[in-house]
Design goal:
The complex is a heterodimer.
Chain A: H1 3-7, H2 14-23, E1 30-37, E2 47-56, E3 59-69, H3 72-77, H4 83-96, E4 100-103, H5 106-119, E5 129-131, H6 132-140, H7 149-155, H8 166-184
Parallel strand pairs in A: 1-4, 4-5
Antiparallel strand pairs in A: 1-2, 2-3
Helix pairs in contact in A: 2-4, 6-8
Chain B: H1 4-13, H2 24-31, E1 35-39, E2 44-46, E3 55-70, E4 73-80, E5 85-86, H3 89-92, E6 100-113, H4 114-123, H5 125-136, H6 142-148, E7 178-180, H7 185-195, E8 199-204, E9 207-213, H8 214-222, E10 242-243, H9 249-259, E11 263-267, E12 276-281, H10 282-289, H11 292-302, H12 306-325, H13 330-356, E13 363-368, E14 381-388, H14 396-417, E15 420-421, E16 434-436, H15 437-449, E17 465-470, H16 472-484, H17 489-500, E18 524-525, H18 526-544, H19 553-563, H20 568-592, E19 598-599, H21 606-629
Classes of the chains: A alpha/beta, B alpha+beta.
Chain lengths: 186, 636
C-alpha cells in the first residue's frame, strides 16, 4: 500500500529497473506461468521450479519458454536466499518483461514472487494478471467456485503429458487460456 | 537448458510419419521451434488464395477439414485427425494455398516452421520422399491418403472412378486363329467366317509376322488390289502389337489408343517372339467396360444350378474386395452388390420353380434385414419371407404345401451358394414365415399394435424388406398395412426402447467396449455395438417420419436430414459414420473371410482408432433424438 514511500530513493537492482521501464509500454504478449513451491505460505515456502511459456498472436511459442529447476535440498537448508534462486528470479523477471501473466491461482505465485523480490531489494510485481480459474468461473457463470487445474484440464479435454514438469504445466495453462480466450472474447 | 515442453511435443510427433523417420534428438530440436495454435470450431486456418504460411501443420487434437470450392459448393477433400500432417504446400510451391483448412471441431495444431525442418529433410531421404510423394499425390483417392497419413495440398478435382474398369482384368478370346503366310486369302476368309472371328494371326516358320482383320479384306481385297488367290501375307498388317497375358483394361485401352489399332495380340511375355495366347479386340474392352456387375447379373440369369450361382457369388466378392481397397464409394458398392445378390436370389427362386412347376397363386418373395436394406457386402446370413395370395379354404393345404416346398428349395439353393441361415430362423423355409397375405397383414398389425409380446423376436428387421420376386402388389399391401396403422405410438416407443438397449460402444473411460469372453475376446464387435444401433435408429425415425420406399440406412439418414432440418447435421454425420463403420467391417470381413463383426482394435492404426472413436460419438446424439421423440419409459 505504502510501498512507494519505502521505495523512494531506493536503488533497485538492474533487472528490476529494466522491468519497470518495460512496463511502461503496453503489450499483447502473454506469459503462462507455473511455479512449483513447497507450500502456499509466501513467507515460509520456497520455489522449487519455474515453468513459463510465451503466447504471442494467440500462438504458444515453444521456442520462447523458460524452465528452471532449483536444487531443492540446497534451498531448504539455507536460511538466506541462495545464488541460484536470485538467478532464477532474475531470469524469470527478464523473461516476463511487460507481458500479461497467466496462471492457475496466480495470486499465490505473485505473493511468493513478491516475497523473493523484496529480499532482492525490488518492488512488487505490477504486471497484468489473468487467472484461468477465474476465467472459467466467468465462462460457467458460477460465483467463485473452486476448480483445480486437473478439473479444468479434463473439462477442456486437454491431455496430460507423460512427464509432469513445471514447463509442461505452464504449457497446459497456456492451452487452457487459448481455449478460453474466445469464449470470453479476449 | 532443459525444455520439457519441446520434449512433450517431440514425444507426440515421434509416432507419426514423417517424424518417425527422424531421431528423437532431431525431433526435439525441431520441436523447440513449434508454435501451438488453437482453433475454435469452424475457425479457418487458411483459405484458398491465402498467402503461404511459413510453416506446415500437424493436428494435435481435434479435426481439421480440408475443403475446396467448386461450383460455389464447398467440397470436403479430407479430414485430418490427430497426427495428420497438412499444409505442405510452402515446402514445394510458391503459389498461394489451394484449399481451405477449417476446424470442424475445436483443434490444437502444431505449426512447424519450414525453415527448421528443411535441413533434416535434406539429410533424410525417407522424409523427403514421403513429403514429395504426398505432395505430388494429386489423386482424390482417400485410401492412398490414409496409407500415407498425409494429405496432398495440390488437389485437382476429378470425378471419382465410379466404375470398376481400372482394376478389372480382361476376358478375351484365348483361341485365336493362326494361319501360315502362304495360305491363300480365300482360304483364310473361309476359315474366319467359319469361326465367326474378325481377325487372324499370320505365322511364318512359327514366328508371328502379322495380323489380318476384316478391314484388311475391305481395303485390300474388295477394292481389287489383291486377288483372292494371293497369299495372305500380301494383305496382312504388321508389326502386330503384342501385350502380356494379365493385362488390365486400362492398359489395353492405352495400348490400342497409342498404336491406333483395334486388335492386340496376347503373348506369353508380351513380345512377338513367344507363343500367341489370345487376341484382345475393341469389343472385349467395351464389354468389360459395360461394367462387370452387369456381366455378373447376365451370368446369373443364365445360371442353371446352385454351383453356377456360387461362381457368380465368388466373382462378386472378388470385385467387392478389390473395390473396397480401391476406395470406391461404399454406397455405390452396396447398390451394386445388392443388385447382384438380388439377381442371385431371383435366379435361385426361378431354379426352384423350374423344379417344382409353376405356382398355383401369385406370391411375393421378400428379402428382409440387411439384404432388404441393400447393405450386404459379405457372406452374411440371409433372411427372407414369402407371401402368397389368399386362396379358398379348400385349396389352402395344397397351396401352403407348394410354397413351403418352394421356399425350402430356394433356401437350399442359397445355402449352396454360401448364404448362411439366419440365426433367428427368419427365412421362408420356416413355416412361420411362409404365409398368406392376410396372415402377414395380421402379423404386422400384431407387431405394431401389441409390441413387446414377442420380446424374443427380432421383429424390427421385418420392417426392412425388399421385393425380390413375384407379384409386387403383395409387397405394396404390406407396406400399406404398416403406414396405415394409426396408433403407432406404442410400437414406435417400443422400437425406440429396443434401439437404446444396445450395448454402448465406448466405455465410461472412452475405451472401446471389447468382448470380455468367448472366442473373440479383446475384439470390438462393431456390428452389435455400433452398426445395429445406427440401423435401428434409422429405421425407427423413418417409420416415424413416414418415409416410404427407402430401405437403406445411408439414404434413410440422408432423407431424414431433409425432413428434420433441426437435426440435419447429426443425420448427415450418422450417414457418414454408417459408411465408415461398414467399411471397417467389410475390410475386416474380407481379411478374415467372415462377416467382419469383430474388429481387432489392437491391429488398427492409431489414426483409424481415433477416427473410429470420433465417429462413435454420433450415437450419443442420435440417442438423444430418440429419447426426445419417444416415450421410452413404458417399456423400460
Amino acid at each position: 500500500m505504502l510501498d512507494w514511500i519505502k521505495n523512494i530513493g531506493k536503488d533497485y537492482p538492474e533487472f528490476w529497473k529494466y522491468y519497470l521501464v518495460q512496463l511502461e509500454v503496453p503489450s499483447t504478449r502473454k506469459v503462462a506461468l507455473h511455479l512449483e513451491t513447497t507450500g502456499i505460505n509466501p513467507t515460509k515456502d520456497k520455489i522449487i521450479s519455474i515453468g513459463a511459456v510465451a503466447i504471442e498472436n494467440n500462438q504458444i511459442l515453444v521456442e520462447s519458454s523458460l524452465e528452471i529447476e532449483l536444487n531443492k535440498d540446497e534451498i531448504l537448508e539455507s536460511k538466506e536466499v541462495t545464488y541460484q534462486e536470485v538467478q532464477a528470479i532474475e531470469s524469470l523477471i527478464n523473461f516476463m518483461g511487460n507481458a500479461t501473466l497467466i496462471g492457475h491461482r496466480i495470486h499465490y505465485d505473485i505473493e511468493i514472487l513478491n516475497e523473493y523480490l523484496s529480499k532482492l531489494q525490488s518492488g512488487r510485481l505490477k504486471s497484468n494478471l489473468l487467472d484461468v480459474e477465474v476465467m472459467h468461473d466467468r465462462i460457467m457463470d458460477t460465483a467463485s467456485k473452486k476448480y483445480s487445474l486437473e478439473e479444468l484440464l479434463s473439462f477442456y479435454n486437454i491431455k496430460n503429458p507423460e512427464v509432469a514438469t513445471s514447463g509442461n504445466s505452464a504449457y497446459m495453462i497456456a492451452v487452457l487460456f487459448l481455449k478460453m480466450r474466445n469464449k470470453l472474447g479476449l | 537448458m532443459k525444455n520439457s515442453i519441446a520434449e512433450s511435443v517431440a514425444n507426440f510427433l515421434k509416432d507419426f510419419k514423417p517424424f518417425s523417420f527422424l531421431s528423437f534428438e532431431d525431433l526435439k530440436s525441431i520441436s523447440k521451434f513449434v508454435k501451438v495454435i488453437h482453433l475454435d470450431k469452424n475457425q479457418k486456418l487458411f483459405q484458398i488464395n491465402d498467402e503461404l504460411h511459413n510453416s506446415f501443420y500437424v493436428v494435435n487434437s481435434g479435426v481439421i477439414h480440408l475443403t475446396v470450392f467448386s461450383d460455389a459448393e464447398e467440397t470436403l477433400l479430407n479430414k485430418c485427425y490427430a497426427g495428420d500432417v497438412f499444409g505442405l504446400r510452402p515446402f514445394f510451391a510458391k503459389n498461394n494455398y489451394q484449399m481451405t483448412a477449417r476446424a470442424n471441431e475445436e483443434a490444437i495444431l502444431f505449426a512447424i516452421p519450414i525453415e527448421k525442418v528443411k535441413p533434416f529433410v535434406g539429410q533424410n531421404a525417407e522424409v523427403l520422399n514421403f513429403l514429395l510423394e504426398s505432395f505430388a499425390n494429386n489423386s482424390n483417392n482417400p485410401a492412398d491418403k490414409d496409407r500415407n497419413k498425409l494429405l496432398s495440398d495440390s488437389v485437382q478435382l476429378s470425378e471419382f472412378q465410379n466404375d470398376f474398369s481400372f482394376i478389372q482384368s480382361l476376358t478375351y478370346n484365348k483361341k485365336p486363329l493362326l494361319v501360315e503366310h502362304d495360305q491363300t486369302i480365300r482360304e483364310v476368309a473361309v476359315l474366319m467366317t467359319d469361326n465367326l472371328l474378325d481377325s487372324v494371326f499370320v505365322k511364318e516358320q512359327n514366328k508371328l509376322v502379322g495380323i489380318v482383320t476384316d478391314s484388311d479384306f475391305r481395303l485390300k481385297v474388295a477394292t481389287g488390289k489383291q486377288a483372292i488367290q494371293s497369299h495372305i501375307d500380301k494383305i496382312m498388317t504388321f508389326p502386330v502389337i503384342t501385350v502380356t497375358e494379365n493385362i488390365s483394361l486400362a492398359e489395353a485401352q492405352l495400348a490400342m489408343l497409342s498404336h491406333k489399332v483395334h486388335h492386340l495380340c496376347v503373348t506369353i511375355d508380351g513380345t512377338p517372339h513367344t507363343d500367341v495366347k489370345g487376341v484382345i479386340t475393341q469389343n472385349d474392352l467395351i464389354q468389360a467396360q459395360a461394367n462387370s456387375p452387369g456381366v455378373l447379373i447376365k451370368e446369373t440369369k443364365k445360371a442353371l444350378s446352385a454351383s453356377d450361382l456360387k461362381a457368380v457369388y465368388h466373382s462378386l466378392s472378388g470385385i467387392i474386395q478389390q473395390a473396397v481397397t480401391k476406395s470406391i464409394p461404399l454406397q455405390h458398392l452396396y447398390n451394386v452388390s445388392g443388385e447382384v445378390t438380388l439377381a442371385i436370389i431371383r435366379r435361385a427362386i426361378e431354379i426352384s420353380i423350374l423344379e417344382l412347376g409353376s405356382p398355383p397363386v401369385p406370391f411375393a418373395f421378400l428379402s428382409i434385414g440387411s439384404q432388404g436394406r441393400k447393405e450386404q457386402l459379405l457372406l452374411t446370413d440371409h433372411d427372407n419371407i414369402l407371401v402368397y395370395q389368399d386362396v379358398d379354404i379348400q385349396q389352402v393345404r395344397d397351396v401352403k404345401d407348394y410354397f413351403n416346398q418352394l421356399s425350402k428349395k430356394t433356401t437350399e439353393v442359397l445355402e449352396k451358394v454360401g448364404y448362411k441361415h439366419c440365426e433367428f430362423g427368419h427365412y421362408a423355409n420356416n413355416q412361420k414365415w411362409c404365409k398368406s397375405l392376410t396372415e402377414w397383414v395380421k402379423q404386422y398389425e400384431n407387431w405394431i399394435n401389441t409390441p413387446g409380446e414377442f420380446t424374443n423376436e427380432h421383429c424390427s428387421i421385418f420392417f426392412d424388406y425388399e421385393f425380390v420376386f413375384g407379384d409386387q402388389n403383395l409387397e405394396t399391401a404390406i407396406t400399406e398395412t404398416i403406414f396405415k396403422t394409426k396408433s403407432k405410438v406404442l410400437f414406435l416407443d417400443y422400437l425406440g426402447n429396443d434401439a437404446l438397449k444396445k450395448p454402448a460402444p465406448l466405455s465410461f473411460f472412452k475405451k472401446f467396449n471389447e468382448e470380455e469372453s468367448g472366442p473373440n475376446v479383446g475384439k470390438f464387435n462393431v456390428k452389435e455395438k455400433a452398426i445395429n444401433q445406427l440401423v435401428d435408429i434409422a429405421r425407427l425415425l423413418s417409420i416415424q417420419h413416414g418415409l416410404k420406399g427407402i430401405n437403406n440406412t445411408y439414404s434413410r439418414y440422408k432423407e431424414l436430414a431433409i425432413k428434420d432440418t433441426n437435426n440435419a447435421e447429426i443425420y448427415l454425420e450418422a450417414a457418414d459414420t454408417f459408411l465408415l463403420l461398414s467399411r471397417y467391417r467389410t475390410l475386416e470381413g474380407l481379411k478374415n473371410d467372415n462377416s467382419g463383426e469383430f474388429i481387432d482394435i489392437e491391429k488398427l492404426s492409431k489414426v483409424d482408432k481415433e477416427k473410429l472413436k470420433e465417429s462413435l460419438h454420433i450415437l450419443k446424439d442420435l440417442e438423444e433424438i430418440v429419447k426426445d421423440t419417444f416415450q421410452l419409459t413404458q417399456f423400460s
